[in-house]
Amino acid sequence: MSAILDVVNPGGRDPNQTFPDGAGLPGDPGHAPINYHAYAACCRGGFYRRDADLPQGGGAVLVLLRRNGLAAALETVKKVRQKGRKALISWKESGLHQVATALADARRYAKFREICAAADGFVSSTPELVPLYRAAGCTVGEFIPTPYPVDTPSWNLSAPVGERQGIFIGTREFNVPSRNHLMAVATACSLNAPVTVLNVDGRAGEKLLRAISPEINIVSRRLPYREYLRLIARHRIVFQLDASCVPGQVAGDALLARTLCIGGNGAVDRIAFSADIGDTVEEAAEMASWLLSDNALYQKHLAMSQEVASRELSFRAVESRLRAFCRA
């Protein structure tokens, strides 16, 4: 049976991968079924580097757009349509700062408009980008969040609530202003709870973290995704102040770890954790403080987030939306 949707990332680095078993198991080889791989996985489709690698027949194809891959994306859109398949588009790096950087060039914006004119529609992983696609001439499309396999029992990476301690910082990049990483770390360190941070900035990053607080638990090695989720699960909350309007992988990771994510404005954050976000840094910090100390409130918000995720972000829910959109 043909998949409803396959994904092509023209010229990307990720190898071809199919998802005949949907989400599969956390220890399976290959890319985890998250982000844009998740669109393919929830539809039991595949993620490919070239249109030539696509299986015969099949349903719609989601072509990913990258800053330095727009010419390849346009060619892929045209070839997909020549094969009689519906060609949809989506920005792979879809934070507002990422798309703004990608299109801050007249030739790239002109190429983007060509792609929008050639495509059959778009799938936006964030609501903020919907007006951009439409303004550039791609008028058929909608916001469909990246799914997470919260409805797959093997992807429950939770730890017992009684064993959870402290705060895991969801952001990593000090040098991206909209991430507000330094503010998140500094604010978390003021909440009188253990703080864990992933350091991707080498010795300079470690030095800055130690300057913020010598008590921070710094993790510098790259972790397999399953191990990373289990690390998150050992924490009471995930805290971030990312204002980049991203799809929301940090919040999605928290869902799979069955913990709470506070403070970010990603798409998944706003769907699953809207009651925990807070409009200001002070409100986010106050909510974090309550959740660290109030067990009844913590359990209430855990149940709420998982219920919403099952209804709106699960593989089942997003597959249903993609099926309806691709067949419209």
Folded structure, characterized:
Strand 8 (167-169), helix 6 (181-188) and strand 9 (195-198) form a beta-alpha-beta unit. Helix 1 (35-42) packs across helix 13 (315-326) and helix 2 (70-82) packs parallel to helix 4. By secondary structure, the protein is α/β, with parallel strands linked by helices. The chain has 13 helices and 12 strands. It is globular and about 60 Å long. The chain has 2 domains: 5-147 and 314-326, Rossmann fold (3-Layer(aba) Sandwich), CATH 3.40.50; 153-312, Rossmann fold, CATH 3.40.50.2000. The protein has a 7-stranded mixed sheet. Strands 10-9-8-11-12 form a 5-stranded parallel sheet, with helices on both faces. It has helices spanning 35-42, 70-82, 96-102, 106-118, 130-135, 181-188, 202-212, 225-233, 249-256, 267-272, 281-293, 295-312, 315-326; strands at residues 5-8, 17-18, 46-48, 60-65, 87-91, 121-124, 141-143, 167-169, 195-198, 217-219, 237-239, 260-262.
